[in-house]
Design brief:
Helices cover 52% and strands 9% of the residues. By secondary structure, it is an alpha/beta fold. It has two domains: 1-77; 79-289, Rossmann fold (3-Layer(aba) Sandwich). The chain has a six-stranded parallel sheet, sandwiched between helices. The longest helix has 74 residues, at 4-77. It is elongated and about 105 Å long. The protein starts with a helix and ends in a 15-residue tail after the last strand.
């Protein structure tokens, strides 16, 4: 007869065998496993070091390119926009530094800047759409302007601005429209300092959520300027080339075939690219430049 003591001894023997097996197995595997893990860790460390070197090399190249653009940018663009009139339009949030940098390169290229129009946040604020619509369809409406058949304030406002900024209509239309926009807090610029031009640089900034009213309003203005005969370059930072940013919207729409873009215009290099892209636009050449998605090349090829 099997006693309780037999059962107890059997169970203890089983656990002792398991413990001995674990110890023996661990001892046998410890050497190869540890060696393999160490090799993998050393490999990953080496790859990390290589990547760090590559990043440093690329950063040095970017820094050198920026320094080159700062030092020689004006020489690269000299004469490319000689006797051309250019209007600068800042979208809401566009920094003064970026716009001033672009303006400096445009001037170095020989262009005459006819004005700097800065749009206010109210222009792209959906809550003010009804006010904008009433403004442009009322007594302000230039006599020769045929507005699009829509109640969309974005399209109506864009059509009105494009009409007067490109020099269409009567000489007094531009000042009348801009004065009304200023009084309604849709622009922050002094209307007296702005004259029309067929060549336009639109400066944007920052990532905007896809399908957002702000991005749609900005690209509507770009499309209106182009469709009414403007030669347009849209310049922004990397953020503007992502999501619903103005550069991203141009690059992902039919406007891509007619409007050039630059996605690093907050750098000296991008400001030179913007100027060269506008010079290309005067010769019906369109391109998309920078480092963000949708760019065709880092910079335009200088002509001449």
């Amino acid at each position: 007869m099997i006693s309780f003591r037999y059962h107890l001894v059997s169970i203890v023997a089983v656990f002792l065998a398991l413990a001995v097996g674990i110890v023996v197995g661990t001892t046998a595997l410890n050497g190869p496993v540890t060696t393999d893990l160490r090799k993998q860790v050393n490999t990953l460390k080496g790859e990390r070091a290589d990547l760090a070197k590559q990043v440093k090399t690329l950063q040095n190249q970017v820094d050198n390119a920026g320094q080159f653009a700062t030092t020689f940018g004006s020489q690269l663009v000299t004469g490319t926009l000689k006797d051309k009139s250019v209007l600068l339009i800042g979208l809401p949030g566009a920094t003064t530094g970026t716009q001033d940098g672009i303006a400096a390169e445009l001037t170095a290229a020989g262009a005459t800047i006819t004005g700097h129009l800065q749009l206010a946040h109210d222009y792209v604020d959906q809550s003010g759409a009804s006010n904008l619509s009433s403004l442009v369809t009322g007594s302000l409406h230039p006599v020769g302007l045929t507005l699009p058949e829509t109640s969309d304030a974005r399209l109506l406002g864009a059509a009105t601005l494009a009409y007067v900024l490109l020099g269409s209509g009567q000489p007094t239309d531009l000042k009348s429209v801009l004065s009304a926009f200023s009084a309604s807090h849709l622009i922050t610029s002094d209307p007296k300092g702005i004259e029309p031009a067929k060549m336009v640089v639109v400066v944007g900034t920052g990532t905007i959520a896809k399908d957002d009213y702000v991005g749609a309003a900005e690209v509507d203005l770009v499309n209106a300027l182009q469709s009414k005969g403007g030669q347009v370059v849209v310049a922004g930072d990397t953020g503007s080339a992502l999501g619903g940013g103005v550069v991203a919207l141009v690059r992902s729409s039919a406007a891509k075939a007619a409007v050039s873009t630059v996605d690093n215009a907050n750098s000296a290099f991008g400001q030179v690219s913007t100027t060269l892209a506008l010079a290309d636009a005067a010769n019906s050449r369109v391109g998309h430049y920078g480092t963000a998605p949708g760019a065709d090349a880092l910079f335009p090829t200088p002509s001449g």
